[in-house]
């Protein structure tokens, strides 16, 4: 977790995540994040611009491998997308990788 505590994660010119402050800034406005929303973003940010498997995200968020409920994970993905994305149904930052998991895309990967 030390890597993420050094600086905010810049998603684009108008949106960044500050893990230390547990806050999302979008268009100059702060959005608070729940403990689980923050853990979701932390897990995706550890592998920024790379696909993270569903089970890896789930285990990180709930610290458990028992009674896995992927529907609950999808609920949290949706909540975070609604905060981060301008158009949650057409996400730019939290990308679904069909049959595998999710990826958090950064500003620099969009430019390439």
Report on this model:
- This protein is α+β, with helices and mostly antiparallel strands and 112 residues long.
- Helices cover 37% and strands 23% of the residues.
- The chain has helices spanning 35-46, 54-62, 70-84, 107-111; strands at residues 9-12, 15-18, 23-26, 29-32, 52-53, 94-97, 101-104.
- Strands 1-2-3-4 form a four-stranded antiparallel beta sheet, covered by helices on one side.
- A hairpin with a 3-residue loop joins β6 (94-97) and β7 (101-104).
Write down the overall geometry.
globular
Characterize the biggest β-sheet: 4 strands, antiparallel
Count of beta strands: 7
Q: What is the N-to-C succession of helices and strands?
A: EEEEHEHHEEH
Strand order across the biggest sheet?
1-2-3-4
Distance between the termini: 27 Å
**Rg, alpha carbons:** 13 Å
Write a brief structural summary.
The chain has 112 residues and is of the alpha+beta class. It contains four helices and seven strands, in the order ββββαβααββα.
Q: Helices and strands in order, then pairings?
A:
Layout: E1 9-12, E2 15-18, E3 23-26, E4 29-32, H1 35-46, E5 52-53, H2 54-62, H3 70-84, E6 94-97, E7 101-104, H4 107-111
Antiparallel strand pairs: 1-2, 2-3, 3-4, 5-7, 6-7
Helix pairs in contact: 1-2, 1-3
List keywords for this structure.
single chain; 112 residues; alpha+beta; 4-stranded antiparallel sheet; 3-stranded antiparallel sheet; 4 helices
